[in-house]
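Annex B. Sample input.
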Amino acid sequence: MSWYTWLEQGRDINVSPQVLDSVARALQLDWVERRHLFDLAMDPAVRELPDQGPSYDPVLQGLLDSWGWYPAYAVDRRWNYVAWNEAAGKVFADYAKLTGRDRNLVWYLFTHPSQRRLLVHWEREARKCLALFRASSDQWAEDPWFGEFGRELSEVSPEFREWWPLHDIRIAHTGHKELNHPNAGRLLLRPTTLLPAEFPELKILLYLPLPEENTAEKLQQLTPSGRSSGSQVLRPDMAYS
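Annex B, continued. Sample output.
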């Protein structure tokens, strides 16, 4: 297997995802090692895990569920939702029912009317989200998906079409998010971003309740079980690409 020797030597080779998948299975690589193999061997503009890729480790779902009635979800590098806990589903959206582009946080925020009703300061939050997404996408400038995504969203969202060319950049969530929940009423949450070392392509968004508006009590009422109830972890290939 001369190409494998070339890979070890760092030489320029052209290997299909199917071949790399076979190598990963033969070597019994975990998800992180598998992703590293694909990163080393494939052009970043085209690399994707094959459809039969493994599920994210159940530890990820356990981590999200461990926060009980604190909303939390995970997104991949393209900001597709890949996992969430029950509280996030109760507060933000019924993620299990989202399909197609709606699986993407940015797309859903800019195109779904429910998000404009939910977010008290929708424009502020949308601009903030867009600046964070811009900073994230710049790390994957060679990936043609981001250009295609931007063109499609520009066709359906005038706000995105106006703000995306401004190239605003933001690298961290700050401040708080104010919601007008249809069942719980006013909620104030402080978002924080976690970067799990086990899943280097993922970001976890955890929302902590602020003292105002009895937010903690309202979250408990929305999620009385304090655990998962129908949440799921998507395989990387299940997220809309």
